[in-house]
Amino acid sequence: MSRLHGKIQKKIILLLLAGVAFGLTRSPNRQWKIIKELREEWKNINRKYLEQAVNSLYKSNLISHKDNPDGTTTVFLSKKGKEIALTYNLDKISISKPKKWDNKWRMVTFDIPEKFRRTRDALRFHLKRMEFFEYQKSIFVTPYPCIKEIEYLREFYRIKPYVRILLVEKLDNAPHLRKHFNLL
Q: How far is CA 90 from each of CA 7, 11, 86, 157, rounded to the nearest angstrom?
């Protein structure tokens, strides 16, 4: 459940996406460049963590496989995996601000065990970067729809059991939050 697993999952998804790019590339020079990059990235993955990360990706339905008649197996991104790989870049994940606010607050709460402190810190980092308001140390608020983004973070860091998303209509300090988010 460490951040290391999340990095490996990201690398696997991006490597599989590179395989798609390879299949769509007709230029031999570009194909050789992709092969060289893939070879280097695969060398840098710890096999134990790779196995755990692949199992997690299967469970999340982000990858799938096909057994070939010659006894080999082809692993590929599922439709959901392709959408995530193409939609999200963990380093640039953000939430869209709709033109009109629906007057509802999204609260992300979490109780991540101390042994996963680095993952907890990474989640806080992403929430702050996505401009959530830190309501309390483990409660963040935004007025904007964010379920897909939070689901992605929960899956990526394998912290789904510890993170909750709430849709709230009323908060006692809503005027302060509206001011913070320029919703007056």
A: 10, 11, 11, 11
